[in-house]
């Protein structure tokens, strides 16, 4: 049976760049909400020699994610899941951000766990923003609820998102908390899924020059300051992250699990060494 790699958010940005770095004998399944975006990505990938299947899916819908699993499982052995689908503060209001980034990650991990086996790997894309979450708001007992009481989990994160004064920062707080959840949840899953031989790891990019990252830098002062804190004084390139994410997913990286890989160009350590 052929090996299958599923990439949520595979129609653009880092998801698409990761797909380009996956071995050509692996069947790709790319997904997102917009068919035209997926069709364009499929053409690009096929021209480069990949076999590509696509299906529209909203990761915040458990049913959609289930359909995605069924398609992927029908094509071969699901070895790799790159979960790159997400929304940033400029793109949506807090509830949608939490539903897509946090509940979407729970849906993807929980559904694919059922269809994956020994040697499988799930890479959840978080964000360096996860590290900015105010400690007082990080409540792991609330995060636990995502799996069994989604409504209360959502209610709690929505309440936290209301703390900042303006709409952009409310969405920013929703983003930060949802990505903090992703980092925590990937670690939880890593320890649970290890019993089945499945590796789980999260990746936290800094500011990356995709449409999403560029929109944030145009909108927010602190995002521009973050770029100034990097070693190279620039945003990351989508292809750099695509290569890194595909490498992290590679089975030769078998000992890399249960941890977040922060790829922010040194922005977080820049604060320590700023002159
Ligand atoms: N760029 C940055 O600076 C940066 C920094 C840190 C973390 N990240 C994270 O990296 C990941 C990839 O982002 P990117 O920068 O590559 O931006 P991107 O090009 O906008 O990629 C995000 C993808 O997610 C898909 N998506 C959004 N909502 C979805 C949903 N509900 N269900 C399924 N797919 C959905 C989008 O397609 P549709 O709109 O068609 O659904 C899009 O293809 C995201 O999780 C993002 O939060 C980005």
What keyword list fits this structure?
single chain, 275 residues, alpha/beta, Rossmann fold, 7-stranded parallel beta sheet, 7 strands, 50% helix, binds NADP nicotinamide-adenine-dinucleotide phosphate
Tell me what the structure shows.
This protein is α/β, with parallel strands linked by helices and 275 residues long. The chain has one domain: Rossmann fold (3-Layer(aba) Sandwich), CATH 3.40.50.720. 50% of the residues lie in helices and 15% in strands. The protein has helices at residues 13-20, 35-47, 62-75, 94-115, 140-144, 150-161, 167-193, 211-219, 221-228, 238-249, 267-273; strands spanning 3-8, 27-32, 52-56, 77-83, 121-125, 199-205, 260-263. The protein has a 7-stranded parallel sheet with strand order 3-2-1-4-5-6-7, with helices on both faces. Helix 4 (94-115) runs antiparallel to helix 6 and helix 6 (150-161) runs antiparallel to helix 7 (167-193). The longest helix is centred in the middle third of the chain and has 27 residues, at 167-193. It is globular, with a radius of gyration of 18 Å. It starts with a strand and ends with a helix. The site of NADP nicotinamide-adenine-dinucleotide phosphate has 31 residues, from helix 1, helix 4 and helix 8. NADP nicotinamide-adenine-dinucleotide phosphate binds next to helix 1, helix 4 and helix 8.
